[in-house]
Amino acid sequence: MIRVLIADDQPLVRRGLALILGPDPDFEVVGEAEDGARAVALAHELRPDVVVMDIRMPVMDGVKATEELARTLPGTRVLALSTFDMDEYVVAALRAGAYGFLPKDISPEELIAAVRIVHTGEAAVAPRLLSRLLSAYVRTPERPRSWAAETPAELTPRELEIWRLMATGRGNAEIAAELDISVSTVKNHITAIFGKLGVRDRAQAVIAAYESGLVEAGTGSG
Questions:
Q1: Nearest by Cα to 165 from 138, 184, 193, 124
Q2: Mean pLDDT across the chain, nearest whole number?
Q3: Nearest to 105, CA basis, from 213, 202, 16
Q4: Residue 183 belongs to what H/E stretch?
Q5: Of 1, 159, 177, 198, which is least surrounded by CB within 10 A?
Q6: Would you say 85 and 37 are in contact if contact means Cβ atoms under 8 Å apart?
Q7: 207-219 pLDDT, tens digit each
Q8: Rounded to whole angstroms, how far apart are CA atoms 196 and 40?
Q9: Which residues pair with 82 in a beta bridge?
Q10: Cα separation of 29 and 31, whole Å?
Q11: Three-state SS at 78
């Protein structure tokens, strides 16, 4: 059973999300919050597995709420929602610790799949959408590097190339085909890259690539 908390300032949106997730026997909607501060308070009280979090809310926005939950309840994973697929707040939410992002016009099936993915600890965000977001809203460098490698020379030439390809929107199968290696080899390299960069998932690795200057705005694959 995946315990879910829904946070959105619009009652109809909260009810709609609950009606999508509630009937599925794998989910239990344990609570609803109308702003980020209430979401944080309820998360501490109810200990959900996943918080479906609108990133633009009053009192405390979803970015600040995500940052607080990542710091104080690392076992609770955040899936960020936005009305717009191109939203600079999305990058801020991923940087703050959200495990994934969905625009609000997604299908019920996509929502259910994303909650399941986030619950496993994987990142739920389309690689090309992430690259578009970062191309639009992350400027390289000089900026604080949240996760950029302090010693990028630790990465092997192969790891550096795979990191660059990830950042330009390629999935694992595309990287494998381009480099003429197996998908399992790509996954092994990505695990090593995460460890050396000190990042948790693919989304944070891609943000780190932009923040470090490895790739620049406009280099994504669309």
A1: 193
A2: 82
A3: 16
A4: helix 183-197
A5: 1
A6: no
A7: 788 777 777 655 4
A8: 31
A9: 103
A10: 6
A11: strand
